[in-house]
Amino acid sequence: MTRCVRIFSLFLSSVAREIEDYLIATYGTKGGIGGGDDNADYVYVYKMNGKTNP
User: Measured in whole angstroms, how far is the alpha carbon of residue 49 from the centre of its chain?
Assistant: First the structure.
């Protein structure tokens, strides 16, 4: 099984949060905004299907 996984290293927490907000608003992704602490600078994205157990 192949999954489409993207991990974005953005170097700045503020940019990571903007990308996260965009993905949720634009694509209706699951998850919530603002995860992690003030040093979080990664956004992790993967495609879900009926068998995905996040």
Answer: 16
